[in-house]
Design a protein that fits this description.
This protein is of the alpha+beta class and 107 residues long. It has helices spanning 61-83, 86-102; strands spanning 6-11, 17-24, 29-34, 36-43, 48-55.
Length: 107
């Protein structure tokens, strides 16, 4: 069985993203709008992470800071699930809290 996730990026004349939509039919998502996305895949042969980071030209800087903060927290959760290294995952969360404080996302 296959599962498909589709991203559509509408570009302006300068090839800057104007709109991002995505769908994942098996997950019940159909043409949801997003302002940014990060995609990272692991190249096992080259032993490196390959990434695509895109955001629309209307993405607010404050929203981008929140997006990165939440991504850091999600990475800590995923790392903990994948490795069972609780202590390192908590260190990652500590950095996410530090990031949020420095960016004035939390008091």
């Amino acid at each position: 069985m296959d599962s498909t996730i589709t991203l559509n990026i509408a570009l302006d004349d300068n090839r800057v993203p104007e709109q991002i939509t995505w769908k994942a039919p098996e997950g019940g998502v159909d043409q949801a709008v997003a302002d940014a996305f990060m995609l990272t895949v692991w190249d096992g042969k080259g032993k490196e992470a390959l990434r695509i980071d895109l955001w629309t030209k209307d993405m607010l800087v404050d929203d981008m800071k929140k997006f990165y903060h939440q991504t850091l927290l999600a990475m800590a959760d995923g790392f903990q699930r994948a490795t069972s290294e609780d202590s390192m995952a908590e260190d990652m969360r500590d950095f996410a809290r530090y990031f949020a404080e420095k960016q004035k996302l939390i008091g």
